[in-house]
Specification:
- Residues 229-304 form the Cation efflux protein cytoplasmic domain.
- The chain is α/β, with parallel strands linked by helices.
- 61% of the residues lie in helices and 14% in strands.
- The radius of gyration is 34 Å and the shape is rod-shaped.
- The two termini are 28 Å apart.
Length: 393
């Protein structure tokens, strides 16, 4: 038996989802509103101020603008509910977009490093930047640092890895602006190669951030599970539920950076009712979703303790075939015609059978002891059956 959370249980209320989406969109739009004029300002100031580092910084800001557009689209699509083609929702759209932003950072870094390398290797004559370049670099530093703190705050509120990656994209731009300020100032002070050195440092920072978020997203896309310490927390909560004897095959996979989907096999007393087993699975679901932040959905496979995946277990006949053999074996037993219910308990390599009988019919056989004896004899005649236990009402 498997148990999966209902849609309303695994996700925040619809109003809460809409609020999270609005926060993500607002943070991204604010970033785009800053990046477009700032990137153009740095490109113009770098060109007329003759600063390779500031031009590189301007390209960085415009790459932020591209990533803002990607993030905005991913947020819009990723917020869609699950549908027939996407039963787990669209959260991995954010993951793909995060990987794209990471690759964009790395490509941008390569472009900047190439241009700066030409200067450093003697392929071009270094020039001394002017005051417009320095002023633009300082303005960029202030604006991008403020944008980083704002975007990261929204990322923490919405638990969005994609938004956090974009925040660090802003921070890398602020860091590159620091390098640009130092590089421009140093060049103006009589060290013209410092501007190209600064551009290389900016490229290195970009590549590092790109690798960090790109690699993390790629790991998620190949169904990397929760970290061992978080898996231990999940196991503890499952093991604490009354009725759970053992568990096996606990598997998880992350989705959208912060959510995780899990499935597990849970062993229970093989003689409890189906409804009690279902109640145990509900309790496991409730506890995990309430106490483990990452768990968005859990599929629980309830198994009778002692029923393993041994070849003999798979060879046992299903109810239809088994009942044919049982009815044939007890056909001559007078009380068998009064059986009200037959319950089968599959226990590894054999089946225990329970039959419910009205007590007043015991006289057809003689006594309760004789009824039990006759059914024990029947059990020996049916392949796969270990015992038949008569129950009386």
């Amino acid at each position: 038996m498997s148990e999966s959370l209902a849609e309303g249980e695994r996700r925040p209320a619809r109003g809460g989802l809409r609020l999270e989406v609005r926060r993500k969109q607002r943070a991204t739009l604010v970033g785009a509103a800053v990046n477009l004029p700032l990137g153009l300002l740095k490109l113009v100031a770098g060109y007329f101020g003759r600063s390779e580092a500031l031009i590189a910084d301007g390209v960085h800001s415009l790459s932020d603008l591209v990533s803002d557009a990607v993030v905005l689209a991913a947020i819009r699509v990723g917020a869609k509910s699950a549908d027939h083609d996407h039963p787990y929702g669209h959260a991995r759209i954010e993951t793909v977009a995060t990987a794209f932003v990471g690759m964009l950072l790395i490509v941008t870094a390569g472009f900047i490093a190439w241009n700066a390398g030409v200067v450093l290797l003697g392929g071009a004559t270094p020039v001394v930047p002017g005051w417009p370049a320095l002023a633009a670099a300082i303005a960029s530093l202030i604006l991008k640092e403020a944008l980083f703190w704002y975007t990261r705050h929204q990322a923490r509120r919405t638990r969005s890895l994609l938004l956090e990656a974009n925040a660090w994209h802003h921070r890398s731009d602020a860091a590159s602006s620091v390098v640009a300020v130092v590089a421009v100032a140093g060049s103006m002070a009589g060290m013209p190669l410092l501007d190209a050195v600064g551009a290389v440092l900016i490229a290195t920072m970009l590549a590092a951030f790109g690798w960090r978020y790109g690699w993390q997203s790629l790991r998620e896309l190949v169904d990397t599970g929760l970290a061992p310490d978080r898996l231990s927390v999940v196991r503890d909560h499952i093991g604490d539920v009354p009725g759970v004897r053992r568990m096996r095959r606990l598997r998880t996979r992350t989705m959208g950076g912060h959510a995780a989907y899990a499935d597990v096999g849970v062993m229970v007393d093989p003689y409890i009712s189906l409804s009690e087993a279902h109640r145990i699975s509900e309790e496991i679901s409730d506890r995990l979703v309430s106490h483990v932040d990452e768990i968005a959905d859990i599929c629980i496979h309830i198994e009778p303790d002692g029923h393993e995946d041994a070849p003999a277990a798979f060879d046992l006949p299903l109810r239809t075939e088994l009942m044919t053999g049982l009815r044939a074996a007890w056909a001559d037993l007078p009380i068998a015609g009064h059986i009200e219910r037959v319950t089968l308990h599959y226990l590894n390599d054999a089946v225990d059978v329970e039959v419910l009988l009205p007590f007043e019919q015991v006289e057809l056989v003689g006594s309760v002891a004789m009824v039990r004896s006759r059914f024990a004899a029947v059990a020996r005649e049916v392949p796969g059956v270990r015992a038949i236990r008569p129950l009386f009402r």
